[in-house]
Specification:
The chain has 144 residues and is of the alpha/beta class. The protein has two helices and eight strands; from the N terminus they run E-E-E-H-E-E-E-H-E-E. The longest helix has 15 residues. The radius of gyration is 15 Å and the shape is globular. It starts with a strand and ends with a strand.
Length: 144
């Protein structure tokens, strides 16, 4: 499982010119499920994402979590995070989890995040999405 977290002032996702998810201050999370990933992995990473202390405190130290600042999550499924570009110039996606399983794990991950964060928005699995964000920092972290 590969997770890319971007700290944002706002983010949204549109499908067919309709906004299906939007947040204010928080994290835009790109979620990629690989073969062999499990619910235990999703449990561990959902807790890690929601408890990361990457917001500034009153002393301008990176010390506050999503909940400390009233932050929100927008989670987008993105199988391309599992791309293998080691051979040639065309990415291979053989390491990505099969769509049916990945969709279930994506939904599970989002539900797990709701244990830690009040607002969790998401895109539509498998849809062509247009993601908009205002990156705060910029601040980007990759978890596996």
């Amino acid at each position: 499982m590969k997770i890319v977290i971007q700290r944002v002032s706002s983010a949204s996702v549109d499908v067919e010119n309709k906004t299906v998810g939007a947040i204010n201050k928080g994290f835009l999370v790109l979620f990629g499920a690989a073969e062999g990933d499990t619910k235990a992995d999703a449990d561990r990473l959902s807790k890690k994402v929601c408890n990361l202390r990457i917001f500034e405190d009153e002393n301008e130290k990176i010390n506050k979590s999503l909940n400390d600042v009233g932050g929100e999550l927008l989670v987008i499924s993105q199988f391309t995070l599992c791309a293998d570009c080691s051979h040639g110039n065309r990415p291979s996606f053989f390491e990505a989890m099969a769509p049916d399983e990945a969709s279930d794990l994506y939904d599970y991950f989002c539900e797990q995040c709701k244990q830690y964060t009040a607002k969790v928005e998401k895109g539509i699995f498998g849809a062509k999405m247009e993601v908009k964000l205002v990156n705060d920092g910029p601040f980007t972290i990759v978890l596996e």
